[in-house]
Design goal:
378 residues, Aspartate Aminotransferase, domain 2, 8-stranded mixed β-sheet, 4-stranded antiparallel β-sheet, binds pyridoxal-5'-phosphate
Length: 378
């Protein structure tokens, strides 16, 4: 039971999930099998994608995607500084060097000017992050890509349902990875999805995540063609995801409505700066982010009042794992990332959140901002 009267997130499970999970349990087949294939198919047809591969997390998905593109020691991958650490972890895990660059402060997505400045002869990939569900401007990114010839692995962990110029996130990068962690609106508890139109890469990834077994016509062969690992998503978890995918449009539109209500209620409020959406983008609203002064103090006060709020995400250059060293390169200043890190606040956002609860969040937020402006912590 949450100690908060209004939690940050409460996953929507839906009536059919228990039945579906029970059916898997009754079947006696619990590892990855036909239910996981059906879940992948459901996501594939939702996106209009060529190939979808389920794995145990987005972090694993990013690592497998980089391996599939042969990114490894000696290579650099450009990553935004303002992101969940998993983006850069995946780069380090394959032995490549994450190159951290700044983000736009209010869009919070990677600064494409900084990307261009950071490119060297070692740059093999760029990993933009559609942070909180805000899509990347692919018009600009693709023009850089054409000029410099890198591959794009998008960390779209929070961005299922987002699009740019009406093209779904998932169809824009060479390889895209989504998360199924419970703060995402489609969740399997833990899990990830890799999406690509590159069939050779998809076959390689399917093989790698299943002990390196051979693949022929999309089917596993009992021969071990390469060294691989085990990142299979169990049918038990896929059953949860499959049921949720039946409701994907309804779940997404509810989140968009909730965010519209926050947008209206917070417009022009003293002390609140609203985040921005990428022009020509559709934001899938994994989180609702505002920027406030004295963020930590405001956050503490809201929590004391029973409202669970959270920082936006991390500025990686400030974390011990990503200080500049032989395995991590920092490029330029991190003005946008530092500002977003210090000011961003995620407000409660989940399917069952009611209008009166949103009103209470807004009321308490305004009152905490006023209190903190009058007596800021020293
Ligand atoms: C931007 C980003 N990348 C990667 C991850 C990691 O996803 P997972 O927990 O599925 O490994 C997250 C998780 O929240 C995320 O927000």
């Amino acid at each position: 039971m949450s100690r908060y009267t209004i939690p940050l997130m409460r996953p929507w499970i839906g009536a059919g999930v228990k039945k579906r999970v029970e059916a898997v349990l009754d079947s006696g087949f619990l590892t990855e099998g036909t239910v996981t294939r059906s879940f992948e198919d459901a996501v594939r047809s939702y996106l209009g994608a060529q190939r979808v591969i389920a794995v145990t997390s987005a972090t694993v998905g990013l690592e497998v995607a980089l391996r599939a593109l042969d990114v490894g020691p000696g290579d650099e991958v450009i990553v935004p500084d303002f992101t969940y650490p998993a983006s850069a972890h995946a780069v380090s895990l394959v032995g490549a060097t994450p190159v951290l660059v700044d983000v736009h402060p209010r869009l919070m997505t990677i600064d494409l000017f900084a990307v261009e400045q950071a490119i060297t002869s070692r740059t093999k990939s760029v990993m933009p992050v559609s942070v909180f569900g805000n899509p990347i401007d692919y018009t600009q990114l693709n023009s850089l890509k054409q000029r410099h010839g890198f591959s794009v692995v998008e960390d779209a962990a929070p961005a299922l349902g987002a699009s740019f110029n009406n093209v779904p996130v998932g169809l824009l990068a060479d390889i895209t990875v989504f998360s199924l962690h419970p703060r995402k609106f489609i969740t399997t508890g833990e899990g990830g999805l890799i999406v690509t139109a590159n069939h050779a890469c998809a076959d390689w990834m399917m093989s790698y995540k299943q002990f390196g077994m051979g693949i022929s016509d999309g089917r596993l062969q009992s021969v071990f063609e390469r060294v691989g690992s085990n990142h299979k998503l169990s049918d038990i978890l896929a059953a949860v995801g499959l049921e949720q995918m039946k409701n994907v449009d309804m779940l997404l539109s509810k989140r968009v409505d909730l965010c519209e209500y926050y947008n209206k209620s917070l417009a022009g409020v003293n002390g609140v700066t609203q985040s921005e959406v990428t022009p020509n983008g559709f934001h899938s609203r994994q989180s609702y982010i505002v920027f406030v002064e004295h963020r930590d103090q405001v956050m503490a006060q809201l929590r004391e009042r029973g409202i669970e709020v959270q920082i936006g995400t991390y500025a990686l250059h400030r974390e011990p794992a990503f200080k500049e060293n032989a395995g991590v390169r920092h490029h330029g200043e991190f003005t946008g990332s530092n500002w977003a890190f210090e000011h961003s606040l995620a407000l409660p956002l989940y399917h069952e959140l009611t209008g009166p609860e949103q009103d209470k969040v807004v009321h308490e937020l305004k009152s905490a901002i006023r209190a903190c402006a009058e007596s800021p912590a020293r």
